[in-house]
Amino acid sequence: MAERVRLSDLAQQAGVSTATVSRVLNGKSEVAEDTRQAVLRALDLLGYERPEKLRARSGGLIGLIVPELTNPIFPQFVQHLSTEMLRQGYTPLFGTQFAAGSTEDSLVEGIMSQGVAGLVFVSGLHADLTANTQRYQDLIDNRVPFVTINGANAKIDAPDFSTDDADAITQAMRHLVGLGHKRIGFVSGPLRFSPAQTKFERYLECVKQMLPDSAPIHSETLFTVEGGQVSAKAVLDQGATAIICTSDIMALGTMRYIVDQGMSVPEDVSIIGFDDSAMMPFLSPALTTVRQPVRAISEAAVTTLVSRIKQAPNEMTLTTFKPELVVRETTAPAKQTASS
Fold this sequence. Notes:
Elements: H1 7-14, H2 18-25, H3 33-45, E1 61-66, H4 73-87, E2 91-96, H5 104-112, E3 118-122, H6 134-141, E4 146-149, E5 160-163, H7 165-178, E6 184-188, H8 194-210, E7 217-220, H9 225-236, E8 242-245, H10 248-260, E9 270-275, E10 288-291, H11 294-309, E11 318-321, E12 324-326
Parallel strand pairs: 1-2, 1-3, 3-4, 4-5, 5-11, 6-7, 6-8, 8-9, 9-10
Antiparallel strand pairs: 10-12
Helix pairs in contact: 1-2, 1-3, 4-11, 7-8, 9-10
């Protein structure tokens, strides 16, 4: 490895001296832990294989289950969750569902057969308020530690870590109302999922509080580009001048539909997405969206799960994390009309 590694490259990436890099690579103890971790991250980022003596020994496996990978927010969760698991000495064992493929139950069965110490569910059946929760009770009865992300369910006695969906919609509505929009459409995912339901309920409250002379404009659809396209037509036909979408992917669909109709974003219609997945700043126009605090959620979820694995005293908690409205180029003041 010494022949391939350029100490200067590692030093620049980690923000330390080449002498410090050398001490870390040689396993010297007189290096602060934060500095050591910075050098190890630099090794990973630059594509170098860690020397055997610097590789962490796994304390066990943790199963990580996400519903899909086509929506870029889920790979983002996988990245941060996996990083935190590795940092805390555990190896992630990853599973994802896909159309006509593995179900959540079959994934859990396969992952459990590998002797995992615990499980993380991201936007799984726990978020579906119509789903049978006995599958989670079985895990509890068998003393399998697990946590859920983005889908608090009062029927499941396990810690949940979620974005504050009500606050997200409040921020989006205040922004659009402040820009003079009075007809604001809302494109949601299926309302049987608790995050979608929470967002929709808060939207209705905001319309009542902020736009008392206006009526709600809502379309329920799938979390897909095609779903966004279909719902864009539905809300625009009802006179919406701005649209809030409950995922960035759906927002891309609404933007495509608007452009296909010969209109412009944001000159004719303002759009707000939800997630702030990685590529959203690079669109043209760049998407205004509500950012999920993915890293904070991931770190808290893994820390709590590891505590449960180690049987440290803890209680079932429902923890919400504050989102951030990121204003970019897809929102603008409402057009003035004769009726304005």
